[in-house]
Amino acid sequence: xxxxxxxxxxxxxxxxxxxxxxxxxxxxxxxxxxxxxxxxxxxxxxxxxxxxxxxxxxxxxxxxxxxxxxxxxxxxxxxxxxxxxxxxxxxxxxxxxxxxxxxxxxxxxxxxxxxxxxxxxxxxxxxxxxxxxxxxxxxxxxxxxxxxxxxxxxxxxxxxxxxxxxxxxxxxxxxxxxxxxxxxxxxxxxxxxxxxxxxxxxxxxxxxxx
Amino acid sequence: xxxxxxxxxxxxxxxxxxxxxxxxxxxxxxxxxxxxxxxxxxxxxxxxxxxxxxxxxxxxxxxxxxxxxxxxxxxxxxxxxxxxxxxxxxxxxxxxxxxxxxxxxxxxxxxxxxxxxxxxxxxxxxxxxxxxxxxxxxxxxxxxxxxxxxxxxxxxxxxxxxxxxxxxxxxxxxxxxxxxxxxxxxxxxxxxxxxxxxxxxxxxxxxxxxxxxxxxxxxxxxxxxxxxxxxxxxxxxxxxxxxxxxxx
Lengths: 210, 248
Fold this sequence. Notes:
The complex is a heterodimer of chains A (210) and B (248). Chain A is mainly α and 210 residues long. Chain A has one domain (2-74, 90-207). Chain A is built from eight helices and no strands. Chain A has helices at residues 2-19, 26-42, 44-75, 90-93, 95-119, 132-139, 143-171, 176-207. The termini of chain A are far apart. With 248 residues, chain B is an alpha+beta fold. Chain B has two domains: 3-111, Beta-grasp domain (Ubiquitin-like (UB roll)); 117-132 and 144-245, Alpha-helical ferredoxin (Fumarate Reductase Iron-sulfur Protein, Chain B, domain 2). Helix content of chain B is 35%, strand content 11%. In chain B, strand 6 and strand 7 (114-115) form a beta hairpin. In chain B, helix 7 crosses helix 9 (231-245). The chains are: A mainly alpha (210), B alpha+beta (248).
């Protein structure tokens, strides 16, 4: 769980860095983003990383289901009056619920962009690259679609807020000072990823008119 | 003080339990929570009813025997306090108090508020000791232990094994309990030698007993009467991963 989670967190940085190209001026962004997408698709190293990514998503999901079942079994009967929530953060207690939101979002995200790019018929830009940029921009013209993204990214943000430092502890980081540093870095990471990923659809919605 | 109680009554593990209402008049605010239950039991015995069964021993907050859910919180509203050290001054006149046993698959109910916590003993028995025959007590300074090491080991050793960590955990994990013993012994030269063997055995036993996994919500430390640090769990994971990776 920790290893796949940390790999997926690392992937988020790369993914965000690439997608920030969408914020460039429209003409420049279109050619650059489409060219970047083609470059990624044709690179054997990137392909290998992509397979690790797919495997990580699947393993992370399976592990979550396994741990959910284990937890249910271990809990036995529930409390009639339960105020245990005072001792922990709500998002730490609801990682499974946040994970389900993220998973549903990923299915939509993969279907709309990854599947359409890999297997769909997309028009070409003037450089002859598949025009993924226009596909993204058109999708983010819909307000409900932008809201869906914002909700999913906020869920992702809270998932990271607990997940990043928790993963380090699962791997065995017990030094008091470094644990604190990782906790702070984890918070910074979650905030940067949340606002970074929210910025893209919101910016496109507000600035682009078709 | 007038106190209304809703107490979990359950004859045995097989019988279905339910809350039963009681009211106590003239409860002193200086009574401990257990003394308040004693008062209730005297009243029940006098009226020919079966008294409420609950675990207790030292009543000084050091044995780990007492432990119930009070208003949905292990050991009640005060943090880092055992049930026996909770006093009625923490409640208001006319309050209704819900009292339930710790609930976890690994803590089967014996009767009323009493649960069987032998699963914690099984974890300790699986490796929570130093197996070397030490013979006579050696000269105190023959094995150097720094003050910091001794303090850190003692912080972990302070665990009284009450099970509040399990009861407070959303996964019913015994990771804090298990890791406290592993961490205590790993920090001392006498115990460190067997750390690899110990951690594997104890983690395996923890799984066998049916406890859940740790997801680091940190609720266990918040409610722990001894404020045992969750970093002990991280240390247990470190020792476990090391033992598994470096297995010969």
